[in-house]
Design a protein that fits this description.
By secondary structure, this protein is an alpha/beta fold. 37% of the residues lie in helices and 16% in strands. The protein is built from twelve helices and twelve strands. Helix 5 crosses helix 7.
Length: 315
């Protein structure tokens, strides 16, 4: 077996493959065209979310039998075409739930307490003025969760420890299921109108793409804080910018951007720009929600099991 690893993943995966006699190559974040040109000789592709696996790459993958995604989302893969080509796709749902949930809470705290601009003012401008950064507590605030799956449920767990009131919109879960996860089920309209903070934890699909746009921002409470650590594209970022500039929302925290894969990849030399950059109340990180060593290892162990299952190998 020849395997190709193209992203930072747990070393357990490579160690397992080599222990089974596999020939393993590691090419860190090749571009779309680079992957297309080399994929023909591999039986297994191990990746995360970059580059986009489209028909061009799948057609070039003459020997590919499986793609294992060391992450939750698979929206970067043409799943229907891969199925037609007989290529098995596996991912690792829920393995990084705690990691993403912790980052979500970090963004809530940073935006509620203005820690990032305060840090910049002290370090870069040497300004020691606590009065300009007075924030708000999370205690007794209403948190609206959009998507109450494994990550949304974990955020709910943390939020309740802060004595927050948690409501959730998830059309695929019953009132009882959401209640068992610590939240109250509401409609999307109700969530938007009563939440002090809103956090998105839904996959990017045709149904969710652009689900938070101008109309939804207008429905929100004045001064709301909006967090997206799910997938870029769920929020209309131009509408978010206008809501932030107008003061309709007080904070906009993202770990994902709709154009994050348009800058040539996610490697050391990747560059990205957005009108949101430099806007007061905007906080961003480069899709590091699942980037913790513990999450890598948990996903690695899960992926090893999936590879063993797909190729009939003993763990």
């Amino acid at each position: 077996m020849k395997a190709l690893i193209i992203d930072q993943v747990s070393s357990h995966i490579q160690e397992f493959l080599r222990s089974k006699g596999a020939d393993v190559d590691h090419v860190f974040l090749p571009s779309h065209d680079e992957l297309r040109d080399i994929i023909c000789k591999y039986d297994l592709l191990v990746m995360r979310v970059d580059p986009k696996i489209d028909r061009e790459i799948l057609d070039a993958a003459k020997n590919l039998k499986a793609i294992t995604v060391s992450a939750v989302g698979t929206n970067h893969i043409d799943l229907e075409y891969a199925k037609k080509k007989g290529i098995q796709i596996t991912n690792a749902p829920g393995m990084n739930s705690n990691t993403v949930a912790e980052l979500t809470m970090s963004k809530m705290l940073d935006l509620a307490r203005n820690t990032m601009p305060a840090n910049k003012a002290v370090k870069e401008e040497h300004r020691w003025n606590k009065y300009v950064w007075t924030g708000v507590e999370l205690q007794h605030k209403t948190l609206g969760i959009i998507g109450c799956g494994k990550i949304g449920s974990r955020v709910t767990h943390f939020a309740r420890a802060f004595d927050m009131d948690v409501i959730a919109y998830d059309p695929y879960l019953s009132e009882q299921e959401i209640a068992s996860r610590g939240a109250k089920k509401v409609s999307l309209d109700e969530l938007l109108t009563v939440s002090d903070l809103i956090s998105l934890h839904a996959p990017l699909t045709d149904e969710t793409r652009g689900m938070i746009s101008t109309k939804q921002f207008q429905e929100m409470k004045d001064g709301a804080i909006v967090i997206n650590c799910a997938r870029g594209g769920i929020i209309d970022e131009a509408a978010g910018l206008e809501a932030l500039k107008s003061g309709k929302i007080a904070g906009f925290g993202l770990d994902v951007l709709s154009g994050e894969l348009a800058g040539g990849g996610l490697g050391d030399d990747a560059r990205l720009s957005s009108p949101l950059f430099g806007q007061r109340g905007f906080l961003v990180s480069p899709h590091l929600g699942g980037s913790a060593h513990e999450a890598y290892d948990a996903i690695g162990a899960f992926i090893v099991g999936k590879i063993a299952e797909a190729y009939g190998l003993k763990k």
